[in-house]
Structure formats: C-alpha cells, structure tokens
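Field: sequence (string)
Field: structure_tokens (string)

Example rows 1 and 2, in order.
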Amino acid sequence: MTDVHAHTESGAGSGAAPDAAELAEAGLALEIDGALATVTLNRPERRNAMTFATWRGLAAIGRSLPADVRVVVLRGAGPCFSAGIDLSMFSGGGEGFSDGSDAAATDRFIAELQEGYTWLRRPDIVTVAAVHGHAIGGGFQLALACDMRVVAEDAKFCMKEPALGLVPDLTGTKPLVEIVGIGRALELCLTARTVAAGEAARLGLAETVVPADGLDAAVADLVAALLAVKPGAAVATKRLLWEAPENSLEEQCAAERREQIGRLREMFGGRA
C-alpha cells in the first residue's frame, strides 16, 4: 500500500493532496493501493451526512489523485452510504447557505462544491460507488456521479432536495435523466420517494445488486476485472462511451476511428 503524499510529490497530481487530518475533518478517508483508490465517507455517527468541507475534500482528492490510479471506489462507513446534506448547516453556526442575493457569488460557490463530483467522470479513471443503506440527496448524486454502482440489497435511494425547497445541484440531474428518462426522473425528484435496491436495478440505477454481506467481495471482483483491461484501451473506451449520447452516428463513427488509430499507434509503435 502506498502513501498519497509520495505520489503527489512526484508531480502526478495537479494539486496538493489533503492529509489524513484534513480529510478526517471533512468526514472523509482516502486509501491508495497501487492502481486503486478508495474514498470513504467517514462520519458514521452522522450517517455520513455531507458538509461543504466534505465536498471540498472530495474536490481536493480529485485534483491530487496520482496518475497511476485507474479505479476509484466510493463507499460509506457505518450503516449507510450517505444521509445526504447535513441539515445542521441550515441552523446557523459556522458557514451557512447563501441567500442567493449575490447571484454571481452563489454561482461560484456552488461550482466549487460541484467540483467534488465532476472529477469522477474523468476518462482516465473508472469510478465505482459501493452503496449500502441510505443514499439520500447529495449521497444519491455522488453515486450517480460514478460510472458504476454496486448496490447492497438494503440500499435505498432518495432525491430529497425538492422536499427541502431546493433543487439537486450536485451534478445529479443529468445522469439521472440519462439513466431513467425525464418522466421517471421527474417522478423521483418531485415526490422525493425512496427507491429500494430491486427497483434501482430495474431502472438502471444499479449495475449489480448483491447481499449486504457480499458487497465488499462484489466490488473487489469488479475492481479486479476493470484493472485487467489495458489502461489505454480503458481510457479510450470510456471516452468513446461518454461521447456517444451527444454524437450523431456519423460523429460517433468518426470518434471510433480516431480512438482506434490512437490505440494502433500505441500498440504498434506508430506504424499504424
């Protein structure tokens, strides 16, 4: 197992890695073992409720991730993945919510928090959410930000923000609509109802549902399979698949040719 700071000092990451104490203050833990990084939401006493510090900590992890990391697993400590936003932030004391009167400042503030989610879609890594228990609001959106979701049978998803008078603003609306369609996305958000693991699988919100005591093993098996694929092919394929929904068939065919030329050049030393 390797130390995060050794990688960062080598210049692999684009930012300084937060140390363990900083991450703990943000309710996070990070473990790097070769090509695998495991990010743990680590406030079990608060059901991994998320704060501004949590989202900034996630962004800092993304900025500093070593270049040799290929797979990132997101998990929650304790009985659930995440209960969503820490509601104590509504009650004052410390940093609180803007009243939105300065639209530009609020826009910048939210964009800073969204950075904790957007890096999970980078083509150079594959991200896996290991979800058990509740994944509510910002926790649901964190799972949606990942490429894949391995879900325990006790998992429950809920997009709670509209019930609090807010909107989901942590990058979750786009993947939700892409996965379930706008009609179902409207129904899930505007009723704020709970979606159990079985329904999540039927809707495409979970790639795999496993018994609660088999979650770690299922994630380990998936990670091993992902790491067995050649790194360059994995990056190029993820990039292609992310482009596909926005491309016409002609554009996607051209993208496939472009990516394959790159792969052939790498494999055969530029002779392709």
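Row 2 begins here:
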Amino acid sequence: MPSLLSNRLAKRVLRPAFSLVEQRLERATNALQADLDALHHEVADLRRQSYGLALLLDHAGRDDHRMPTATLLDTLVREVVTVTGASAEHARRDLTVAYRTVVALEALGVGRMPGSASDVCGKLAAVPLLTPPNGEVLEIGTGHGLLAAALLRMLHRAGTEARLTVVDPLEGGGEPLVREDVVRANLALCGNRQGTEARILRGTSGDPEVRGTVSDRGYGVVVVAGDPSAQTALADLEWAEELAADGAVIVLDGHGDIARPGVREALAKGLANGSRLRLLGQIGATAFLRASRI
C-alpha cells in the first residue's frame, strides 16, 4: 500500500499543517539558539571574572587559597560561637570583616599570612570577641607580620588600643625572606601607630635576654605560632602561661593540623601539669585558651 505522504491529494490537504509545524519548530529553534547564545556570553563573562578573582585570591604565594565557600563560613560561625559565646549574627559579621581584612592586607603586604582561610579568619574574629583583659599582645613567631597587623586592626575595630610585642628569630626562608624590615613594613599596614611602634625582639623563648625583656608586663593576648615541634611548642606554651595576665586569651596555632602533631602533644602535656590555662575550644586548626588567676 503506497504511503499516505506520497499521495498528491494528501500532500495538498496536509500542507497547511506541515507549514504550521515547521513555523513552530523554527520559532522554537530560534528561541533555543538565542538562549544558547546568551548562555555562551554569560559563561565567557564568568570565566573572565573568575580569572581575575583567582589572581587575587588563589593559593599562589600563600599556604592556601582565600576563596571560602558558604559551607565553610557556616562551619566557622558555629565554631566561633562555641568558643566565644557570641551570637551567630555577631560571629558572622566579624568573620566577614576578618576575611576582608585578610584579602586587603595580603594584597598590599609583603609575604603572606600562614594557614588556611579558616585558621586566619577564625583567629582574627575570635580574639576580639573573647574580650582580652588588656591591650598588650605578644606574638611568639610572627612570620612576615601580616597576621599581627590584621589582629591589631581587628582589636582596634573592637575598641582596644593594642600594643604589640613580637618574638621571632627572623631567619625564615622562602619567598620573600622573613626579615625585620619586611615585618615592620607589614605592621605599618595596620593603619595606626600601634603597628609602627611595635616592639620586635629577635630570638626565641629560650633566649634569656629576650625573656627578661618580654617579662616586663602581663599580656592580654598571647599568640603561640613558633616552631611546631613538641618540645619547643611546650616551652612556648609554658612561657605564654607565665606571661599571661588574668583572663588572657592564648592562641595556639596548629593544634588541629595533622602536619604538626607536636603542637597537640605539647598542649596535652601542658594541660596535664596543673596549668592555669583552660581550653575553650578549637576554630579551624587553632586552639584557644583562657588564663585563670595566678
């Protein structure tokens, strides 16, 4: 039986229907092509934007990238709330400000802030929220000094006029080299005289002269970020305990970092020996402690 579509009469009768179908297909195809063209342009724009953003925030020249996800920020908010007792709204706001500070100072400074975005932003947000008892800040191990500059800015924003003392051998390798002139240039980025007037002592917690100079005051904040070996980390932590004012905040860098197991070992030993330090919790890979009365 011959096909219906090969019949001339059938073709003549069905031609209007065919034309209508063809018109509708053409309109649909044109609309789809327009959507595809628009999508192509949007993807091209996103690629251009992401390339520029990556130049600013990727891991080049850092320990890690500075592109947090919404999930990462939510986790940080929960950790900051647990450690500090602040509201979730307050913690999120301060973490956002801390992140902006990190991006700005790393873009302007020489070198980098050591650690992941979680570690860096967690420190900067939590310390002011823990309301240190005074503005004396001791940093044992400063690297390029950018974290200290950021911490001074965050404390100043919270109403604390901080005074910084830095203890570091200033012999770090890498690119750029850790030198006093680099540290001072970065501290100047904090935007107030506390950065330029910082007291920088070249040495370690084992140097008698350094210990004598640093022990002239009680510190409201002590950041322990020196050699991560168990022996040195324990010595630094015990020194921090001696120097801490009543109610001081102790920040122990690397406590949750599997690449630095000596730090966790040092804290466990330190707390087992009748320490006046009380563990508040951990944010990222950083432990936070509070010093009780002597």
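free_text_note (row 2): The first helix runs from residue 8 to 57.
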